[in-house]
Here is the input.
Amino acid sequence: MKAKSNKALFTLLLIIGLGLISSECSAQKNVKWKQLFNGKDLNDWQIKIRYHKLNDNFGNTFQVNDGNIQVRYDQYSKFDEQFGHLFYKEPFSSYLIGVEYRFVGDQVKEGPGWAYRNSGIMVHGQDPLTMSVDQDFPNSIEVQLLGGNGTDERSTANLCTPGTQYEIDGKIIKQHCTNSTSKTYHGDQWTRVEVLVLRDSLIVHYVNGEEVMRYTKPQLDPKKGSEQGELLKSGSISLQSESHPLDFRKVEIIDLEKYEDKPKKLEKVIAKLMAQKRVALQE
Here is the structure.
């Protein structure tokens, strides 16, 4: 059964990759966004900050103010590589997630240079219950969120791979980070990033409605000299704290799991979703 469904998903990703899906379709009308962040509190989320136990929100790093999830370091004297992640309470396998974020203020003292205006959406991640106290990042696929410095080009919705790897055109890619084709977003402007995840078959990144990256077969780092690692079929979703303050005003998802074994319906739903160009509005 699993083999058949995986084959169906691979067939679908080839169709998507060739751009043959018609936007004129009668996709299911009941496909709606679910808000993972309720705009009020973090009751549906778990916190894991390096060197601290699960749900110890050291320094009030993750907080809710003005209807936004805010990542703040006001109570830090220095960063000390205390990377943090805010995990949603349940895992997902196939879905489209949308996040709207903006970087604000100044980086905390002794934050790494590479972490300037840097955060991420972690997908297909490990369960936070299995993370060690001193673990910096969950094994996951990271959709890296970057802001510009006002001068240089710096793409967002890049791909980083803590404890993972992936394939492009049938070739396993082992380098840690790969840039997307997005433009640079300077200043404190809101930016929308969406990620289409189809189990262990396909992941596609979008920025303000434009595709900027795609790849296949997300997997854990291999063991015992193998070339390929264990394929990631599902996992946690989390948001990063990497030493620069930022806000998340929206975290929403469309769960596509019920269509995993129905490729024709999945094709229609994705066609309808991606026919719409969703752009973050500025306040």
Remarks:
- The longest helix spans residues 2-18.
- Confidence is low (pLDDT under 50) at residues 1-5, 18-27.
- The chain has one domain: 28-259.
